Amino acid sequence: MTSNIDPKTIDLRHAREVAIDASGRASDLLRRRFGTPMEVSSKGHADFVTELDEQCEEIIREVLNDFDDSIAFMGEETSKFETEGNKVQIHVPSTCWIVDPLDGTSNYSHSFNAFAVSIGLLVDDELAVGVVQAPITGELLHATKNQGAFREHLTGAEPAKLSTVDGGNHFNIFSTSVPFRQPEYIAEHMELISKAFNYFEDIRRVGSAALDLSWVAGGSWAAFVELFLKPWDIAAGGLLVTEAGGVITDFTGNEKDWLTNGQVAASANARVHEIVLSLIE
User: What is the pTM for the complete model shown?
Assistant: First the structure.
């Protein structure tokens, strides 16, 4: 589906509130079903989908369509992609919603609470709205282009403005994953992880790119690197990073292509990012 809407007519504040509503409805269902028996099927090697992925995507789509059904919708469970070498190939409409209804499906299916709902809005090829909600911890993170990134909590605490943190070499956490679905790249990536210990305090591997990017934005991680990510994994979190003062590029330092080629390097600031890119070379 392509968008016929004039991007200039989109009310970003309203769009953000709609995305928050949609993520909340999906999160409610995920909380209710967390830790219960569910149907799990395979989409490929170590790539799974549950009935909740599909149900939540439909819930989100309905809410977003009620806002404006002329905006294209790209969801994980209804979109296709290819890979070539160490890059993803996927077409993203210039204006569209980009949705992962359950980022961290494997974690969810194993009753591990590191998973999230991720909703991004691309407007005229620029990320304009990002919402990431962690259903079990109750965190809601959101950003609007040029208006900053914020964390709210379901307990009702006041929203807090997000800001990246650089604690200096050896007092920063480096987060990553392993390209387990493309085993030919595992050894190379393990070399990168080994080199990271020369500059970072420790390594984390969570299994949800949306949360990893949120934690870079919030100052928990100083850097995050991963291969073969899809737009729905990273659109919302990527905007959180940049609106919190961080940097996100692909592995060559390109500030645009990371959304579509699956190579993501996100850092607290330019100093850390220079180190991260040097590890990748």
Answer: 0.94
